[in-house]
Amino acid sequence: MRIFQHVTDIGDLSAALAEAQEVKRNRFAWQNLGHNKTALLIFFNNSLRTRLSTQKAAMNLGMNVIVLDVNQGAWKLETERGVIMDGDKSEHLLEAIPVMASYCDIIGVRSFARFENRADDYEERILNQFIQYSGRPVFFMESATVHPLQAFADLITIEENWKPSNASKPKVVMTWAPHPKALPQAVPNSFAEWMLAADVDFVITHPEGYELDPQFVGSARVEYDQMKAFEGADFVYAKNWSCPGVTRPEDYGKVLDDYHKMMNWTVDAAHMAVTNNAAFLHCLPVRRNMIVTDDVIESPRSLVIPEAANREISAQVVLKRMLESL
Amino acid sequence: MRIFQHVTDIGDLSAALAEAQEVKRNRFAWQNLGHNKTALLIFFNNSLRTRLSTQKAAMNLGMNVIVLDVNQGAWKLETERGVIMDGDKSEHLLEAIPVMASYCDIIGVRSFARFENRADDYEERILNQFIQYSGRPVFFMESATVHPLQAFADLITIEENWKPSNASKPKVVMTWAPHPKALPQAVPNSFAEWMLAADVDFVITHPEGYELDPQFVGSARVEYDQMKAFEGADFVYAKNWSCPGVTRPEDYGKVLDDYHKMMNWTVDAAHMAVTNNAAFLHCLPVRRNMIVTDDVIESPRSLVIPEAANREISAQVVLKRMLESL
Amino acid sequence: MRIFQHVTDIGDLSAALAEAQEVKRNRFAWQNLGHNKTALLIFFNNSLRTRLSTQKAAMNLGMNVIVLDVNQGAWKLETERGVIMDGDKSEHLLEAIPVMASYCDIIGVRSFARFENRADDYEERILNQFIQYSGRPVFFMESATVHPLQAFADLITIEENWKPSNASKPKVVMTWAPHPKALPQAVPNSFAEWMLAADVDFVITHPEGYELDPQFVGSARVEYDQMKAFEGADFVYAKNWSCPGVTRPEDYGKVLDDYHKMMNWTVDAAHMAVTNNAAFLHCLPVRRNMIVTDDVIESPRSLVIPEAANREISAQVVLKRMLESL
């Protein structure tokens, strides 16, 4: 594997899930693979879970790890050719990326949406430059539009907690929920993409205007009535996102309605009551009593902690496959 | 050992000191113990000695180390239940702590006194939350009220430099000394606690109003006449601290008198002259000619550098014992 | 090797270059040497290439690495004796340096010129204090006046790319080039020093007033006519530097003329046309179309990426020799 961005990059999902369980049973079994190999983790944005879980995964594999924090403000890279660089950008990416690549074997990059304009974010310029100019395998540690390490961990968690009864596959509902700030679409984009590729019955529910980009949600069923969407759900995946700007690009990155008016979208016991005793998932960090009530997130059906713990596993499978491809 | 906070956590002091010497003689002898084990070191506050010595100790033991710097301002954790999290706190500790714990085997935390109010600091809310919610061994890398890695290193240093003559045990004097800023009581609290548990003759001297909390100083002898306290001392341990607020909680964290008036408390040659050729100790960093004069800290009887070097040893004993308890 | 500052510290250059190639062929062959040895890398200033390449080199050798970022503003060290430390400096270097040294085996330090006054920078006070008080091998990761890891990498790159024809040795031209900010002289100082010691025909070209310090350039030929200097060059090494203040100390660290007036010094195709199909070198980061045009830096004769990659090799030779001296 040379790029980890989309669900298609991981290939057959059953094989990937089986490999995840193999890794989880014995996470130190592949240290010959990582011996004298170096992962460079580049953070243009803050990170807690991704930073820790990816370091842990790389060390599990016997790799060396170098973490590089790049203050997005302090280190501005020029990206255009022909520019006279007499301003605040002291280096061109055409030098910076190959140089960083020369000191490592595998590169992970985190770089969030900037919300300046939709096209800039959705063309994934920064990550694509790393893919194009580094000559190394590149994995996305959350980009402007995707967070595949999260979605893979989510899928692992769903598979571990799905106990088939009548239904042949679980009903998974991804629900928008209120939040005081404008958040990116990376997590819901990837979750949708992965669920559509997995063997689940997938439904998305959100207020009108928050339609996700078709490249990620494809033909997924969207149900604007949240309670109706929750009916019979086996897994509820809550997440806020700002307007993706699909129909009105000028609304991209906006919060369409004051969150105080949207508090009926908070996942609470009444919502969960109409589900099939659904498990609750969230990528974290989560704002309690905005996204989800205390009682739901603390209930025995809340999987948020094992879900976060599976971030180590998803990262390790990705790194393992990249090591195998070197 | 699952918690390292108080002197009682280390058990028998003679055994701990013997183990410290064993570790010091061959610090790389326990790498099988730490192999594939990960220490997560979380810094809510700045650190030089603790950061370096604890990393070194963990690596001596063959552990993987992940250092996490948490800007206290940038990452505010909600600690109450029932709150609608629509403010500046984006994560609840009930999620954050178990998640961090899931990526490591042992957790060290540094979090200083905030001086907002005495009760908040003295109940050690942050550290206790890590103990309660992480499910991992937790050691204190200086908290609001204690700095046990320092006190253990101090004790090791005293033992290494005590040459019994007439007295069966050394006289150890902890003296307050002037400083331009308000400092926490963590270091004097722990030093007192450890000295009272050790086989030494312990005396504390400080201006009136700086009485330390009884939970740490217990029945220790307090001598308000500094020169009298120094008479016959074998070890002088200097440290500034702000008002502990024991009798007047409203004075907690205050500097009671302008330091210019207190400069007769600076440890100088005249003070040392009345001792039994005492060794000089300080936890560092130290402000010269405030806490201690150049000539005293540079004298052959100054042990501040080997004392700091013993921070690696105290940390390694603590980590070793925690590894043994996994 | 106990100090790595000047070209003389590396000894015979042919031997050093041969060792560099040996390291490059098998960079993991000396891990017994670094086992259980710790490199402490202290950054008083920002770093990308040096930070990554030196970590990589140390890990290649099997060493443990601790990186310490010291915010120059936040951690001010007192350097004078006799001062009453009641200001903003909370620690004296006489304590700080030996303590840091006690937790490691080898120390690397980066500390740039401050441009406050020439004497302060050129006496290398900070680095010399590490040499004097640490008791450890100390290598310079760019200081106020030198950047020897860069110059060694430059020399390796020149040797790798010199294909003798008529001339018995290559003509190497170091040229000043325009830049919007005042930059230190560390890179040109070291490059000159290393080239003068190497078996090359060395020429320096710069506008009048930018004469480098004689301790570094010695009797090197200076040619003020840039195009004339370029004639027949085999290697062109471009770099901006501010006024070294050799003849007028009051001009130290200044940009003598507005860069807009100096743009004819930018290395472009017309410059390269008069060379002997010269290779282009620059230490990076480089401002395109100020220092060098896009077409020159992107041409097949541009060696800037392999030159940067050789930073790993130069650092590894230095660390290897320091390990051998322990």
Write the layout of secondary structure elements.
Three copies of one chain form a homotrimer.
Chain A: E1 3-4, H1 13-25, H2 31-34, E2 38-43, H3 49-60, E3 64-69, E4 77-78, E5 91-92, H4 93-102, E6 106-110, H5 118-122, H6 125-134, E7 138-140, H7 148-161, E8 171-176, H8 186-197, E9 201-205, H9 214-217, E10 221-222, H10 226-230, E11 235-239, H11 269-273, E12 279-281, H12 294-297, H13 304-325
Parallel strand pairs in A: 1-7, 2-3, 2-6, 4-5, 6-7, 8-9, 8-11, 9-10, 11-12
Q: How is this structure best summarized?
A:
Three copies of one chain form a homotrimer. Chain A is α/β, with parallel strands linked by helices and 326 residues long.
Task: Please provide a written account of the structure.
The structure is a homotrimer of 326-residue chains. Helix content of chain A is 37%, strand content 14%. In chain A, helix 3 crosses helix 13. Chain A folds into 2 domains: 3-146 and 311-325, 3-Layer(aba) Sandwich (Rossmann fold); 150-307, Rossmann fold. Chain A is built from 13 helices and 12 strands. The radius of gyration of chain A is 20 Å and the shape is globular. The mean pLDDT of chain A is 95. In chain A, strands 1-7-6-2-3 form a 5-stranded parallel beta sheet, sandwiched between helices. Chain A has a 5-stranded parallel beta sheet with strand order 10-9-8-11-12. Chain A has a two-stranded parallel ribbon with strand order 4-5. Chain A is of the alpha/beta class and 326 residues long. In chain A, strand 9, helix 9 and strand 10 form a beta-alpha-beta unit. The first copy, chain A, has helices at 13-25, 31-34, 49-60, 93-102, 118-122, 125-134, 148-161, 186-197, 214-217, 226-230, 269-273, 294-297, 304-325; strands spanning 3-4, 38-43, 64-69, 77-78, 91-92, 106-110, 138-140, 171-176, 201-205, 221-222, 235-239, 279-281. Chains in contact: A-B, A-C, B-C. The interface between A and B is medium-sized, with 28 and 28 residues.
